[in-house]
Amino acid sequence: MISNSAFDTKAAGLGKAAGGESRAAGNGATVTGQYTRTELGLPQSEAEPFSVTVARNRNGCVLAMVQGAIDATTIDQLDRAFAAQPGMDTRAFVLDLTRVSFLSISGLRVMVDLLARTNEVGVPLELVVDTHAVRRALDCVGLSDVFSTHIERTAALAAVDAAELDATL
């Protein structure tokens, strides 16, 4: 499923949220838009579940958490979730990849595109990377030094002064 509060779902062409409503996640953060693969026009997968959860606090800090394999079957979901990121009022963006079991070249492309967009508007992008699969993918293509990475989400959130977001999800 995709959970997304950081962008307008109609503008992104994702349709309506299952359940129809947003929910407050605490400390001013909001999580909205639960989407199934079918609602996004994507095939159901027998593989591990894939999800993207995006939350924004009242100060414009975004925390995106990805779970599952980022591969040919899930790349469209990831791309759609980040297409409108960063928003105009985004102050910082933290991408938590600690639950990613595989990261394809296409997934790296989405991350590089996100980095280019955040750099263009002066928004810091912090990655949380603690798995061998993600670290190896970044290392193999020489991106380890391009991204600002942290082993723990608390460190990444502290780097952008958004520690309160960690307690909301």
Written description of the protein model:
The chain is of the alpha/beta class and 169 residues long. It has one domain (2-168): STAS domain (Transcription Regulator spoIIAA, 2-Layer Sandwich). Helix content is 24%, strand content 27%. The chain has helices at residues 75-82, 105-120, 132-140, 153-159; strands at residues 2-4, 23-26, 29-31, 51-56, 61-70, 92-103, 125-128, 148-150. The strands form two sheets. The protein has a six-stranded mixed sheet with strand order 1-4-5-6-7-8, sandwiched between helices. Helix 2 (105-120) links the parallel strand 6 and strand 7. The longest helix is centred in the middle third of the chain and has 16 residues, at 105-120. It starts with a strand and ends in a 10-residue tail after the last helix. The model is unreliable at 1-22 and 32-37 (pLDDT under 50).
Under CATH, the homologous superfamily reads STAS domain
- Mind telling me which CATH architecture this is? 2-Layer Sandwich
Number of helices: 4
- What structural class do the secondary elements suggest? alpha/beta
- Return the average pLDDT rounded to an integer: 79
CATH class term? Alpha Beta
How large a portion of the residues is in β-strands, by DSSP E?
Answer: 25-35%
What does the radius of gyration come to?
A: 15 Å
CA-to-CA gap between the ends? Answer: 15 Å
Sheet of most strands: 6 strands, mixed
Helical coverage, percent range: 10-25%
The count of strands amounts to 8
How many separate domains make up the residues?
A: 1
Order of helices and strands: EEEEEHEHEHEH
Instruction: List the uncertain runs.
Output: 1-22, 32-37
